[in-house]
Amino acid sequence: KIFKTVIQDQEKSTADIPPGSHGFPVVGETLQFMLSVNSGKGFYEFVRRRRIRYGSCFRTSLFGETHVFLSTTESARAVLNNESGMFTKRYIKSIAALVGDRSLLCASQHHHKILRSRFINLFSKKSTALMVRHFDELVVDALSGWEHHGTVVLLTDLLQITFKAMCKMLISLENEEELGSLQRDVGFVCEAMLAFPLNLPWTRFHKGIMARGRVMEVLEKIIRERRNETNSHNNNYREDFRQQLLAVDSDGSASSSDHSTKLTDAEIKDNILTMIIAGQDTTASALTWMVKYLGENQKVLNILIEEQTQLAKQASHKPFLELDDLTEMTYASKMVKESLRMASVVPWFPRLVLQDCEMEGYKINKGWNINIDARSIHLDPNVYSEPHKFNPSRFDEEAKANSFLAFGMGGRTCLGLNMAKAMMVVFLHRFITTYRWEVVDGDPSIEKWTLFARLKSGYPIRVSRRL
Ligand code: HEM
């Protein structure tokens, strides 16, 4: 049995604790983790090496706390679906300080439930359809100049496109100058997420905290302005997330009198920042990996070109793609799924153990951190045949249960998954039907200090128009 509650069964576990090393006193293996973060192989290398040495369940000590890593589909189901209620989400301290303790990512279990029930409506089919339209416009605009650029650093441009998309969707911010400074600050916040949480003037963490302060000021101003507009009825009604959040909070509607669901400004601000981070970096990184895999797999590219040029002809009378157009892009959708499996941009999902239990035959103590190692599951030959082969057609059939974890699973599943998949298909369509490309620097090194796996080179390419 993969998972066993111990306290509930009124028995003491006689199982061993998971194999692994606690490293040095106090710091544990934090230094080795930091060396990995700082290496060209990325911080997942720390986990990969231990997975090979100890197997599918091992323990380590990071930032003064015990962490257990698990990499089977059964443990993913038990922990992420959390039917036992014995696990809650928890990020390392630096992340909570940077996104804010009212963020969906860091809120307590009870608080998270309230927040999620409020935010889930914002990710309706209507919002996704609106996003497809806006995102397509942004992509068409950005791509229109690429052939004059000489070299395009793909990741840099994609980060800009996805940042604009998030800001348009969340707060209707389109002013280039304001977007530029906000993007820089959000970048500092992201860079500080894996830093040691030491708030001294010269530290990376301090730089992130200062940037968070500036982002909060901008969001505060934006919320105030919108509230004034709404109160003076002088609003050209804009249907962004902020409007929907404020509408419930200030217009005296049903939920406004319900204090358990009313959002405070602090909750709105923390979660707008959270969604910018959750949506920008992940999507841009995933898109960059997708183009890399595509460039390395000519056969896949040929099938895709055939599908997409056909659809481009059908949609040529419309200026922009619509959500319905994407449903016909079946091979492109599998391509997106396969890219997400191979890239595993969010490599593992952290949870806190609330009660002693046994997992995979090992004793797990209350208070330990447990991490579901999605990347290892995605690359497990017992789960996916020939896992290192890029093969979108493997998704002709349904993946094995609990094996596709790119967006997580259970009560903390990615809220933006449909939007993210739609954005990836839209980009794929425009990119493939507009350009051929050659890679300028294929260095596979991973960027340091990033929370989501991304290529250090930014994947520079040179493009030419496909006639
Ligand atoms: C390719 C792009 C994306 C990937 C790979 C991705 C992946 C993930 C994963 C794995 C989680 C769950 C982590 C866990 O269980 O610990 C998550 C959560 C989340 N994602 Fe995404 N995401 C992407 C895009 C987006 C977008 C576009 C948005 C929306 C704007 C978004 C918003 C969120 C939010 C709000 C959460 C927290 C949900 C909660 O805790 O209840 N994500 N994402």
TrEMBL record:
CDD domains: CYP90-like. Its main location: membrane. Pfam families: p450. Keywords: Heme, Iron, Membrane, Metal-binding, Monooxygenase, Oxidoreductase, Signal, Transmembrane, Transmembrane helix. It is found in: Membrane. InterPro entries: Cyt_P450 (IPR001128), Cyt_P450_CS (IPR017972), Cyt_P450_E_grp-I (IPR002401), Cyt_P450_sf (IPR036396). SUPFAM superfamilies: Cytochrome P450. Gene3D superfamilies: Cytochrome P450. Belongs to the cytochrome P450 family. This is Cytochrome P450. It comes from Brassica rapa subsp. trilocularis. The gene is A08p038300.1_BraROA.
